[in-house]
Amino acid sequence: MESEKIRKLKEQYTDKKVTKAQRQAVLTEVHKERYKADKRKPITLYNYHKVRFWGFFLCFMMYLFEIIRSVTGLEDNKAVTVFMLIFSIIAIAFISFWCVKAITRKIEIEDELARENLNKARVTISFILVFAMLMVRAVVIIIDDFMNLNFSITIESGNISNIAMLILWGYFALESGLFLIHEGKTISDDDIEED
User: Which of 38, 82, 153, 177 could be cross-linked to 106 through a Cys-Cys bond (beta carbons 3.0 to 4.6 Å apart)?
Assistant: First the structure.
């Protein structure tokens, strides 16, 4: 049940005369009021992103190993299959832990510094992706034009979904990891509360 203050803020938000900046300020106030009213135990953004990073990083590694396994033809190797099963269980456990934290805890409201650090992380990811694409293109040009080597790459349909998931998990892991790096530069270890 929403408080009277939140209802008034929602009315201000839907007013046609309000500018975009004022609407954003009203939305921030609504988030603050809901955060105050929430009775769940809080979790800092730093700790939230720590758990999120490890979960997504392990999923990224799981899909990377799966692609390597299918490309090298190790699908029938029992030891590799057992390793992948154990690794998958660990990755699923971390993602489940992250989901439980996200549901059972109220996540600290992003302040201006946290928003700035998250934006820095996203810009850094963009540079990494552009750099990676340029490097792949440079390698292809060198191999094709200067070394006169003819080669072809065949991607099976099953690997297309694995590559898509690899990119997705990699993006989220990089986002949280870079956020932790940028946020770690702005706070000391004494400011990080342990859960």
Answer: 38
| Integer angstrom CA distances of residue 69 from 6, 66, 80, 154 | 53, 5, 8, 15
Q: Look up residue 36 and give its two tokens.
A: 């105050």
Buried b (16+ CB within 10 A) or exposed e, 152-180: eeeeeeebeebeebbeebbbbbbbbbbbb
Dihedral sign, CA of 123, 125, 129, 131?
Answer: positive
1 burial class (0-12, 13-18, 19+ CB within 10 angstroms)?
A: exposed
Predicted TM-score (pTM) of this structure = 0.73
Beta bridge partners of 42: 106
147: which 2 tokens? Answer: 């070394």
State which amino acid sits at residue 135: M
CA dihedral sign of residues 165, 171, 174, 179: negative
Residue indicated by tokens 């007013």: 15
Mean pLDDT of the chain: 81
Give residue-wise pLDDT tens across range 106-161.
Answer: 888 888 888 888 899 999 999 998 999 899 888 888 877 777 666 666 677 777 88
